[in-house]
Amino acid sequence: MFRMVYRKIKRILDIILSLIGLIIISPLLIIVAIAIKLESKGPIIFKQDRLGLYGEVFKIYKFRSMCVGAEKGGVYETKGDSRVTRIGKFIRKTSIDEFPQFFNIIKGDMSIIGPRPTLTYHPWPLAEYTEFQKKRFKVRPGVTGWAQINGRKDVPWDRRIEYDVEYVENLSFTFDIKIFLRTILKVIAMKDNVNVRETAGSTSMKVQETISTSTIEERRKK
Question: Domain ranges in the chain?
Answer without folding.
Answer: 2-220
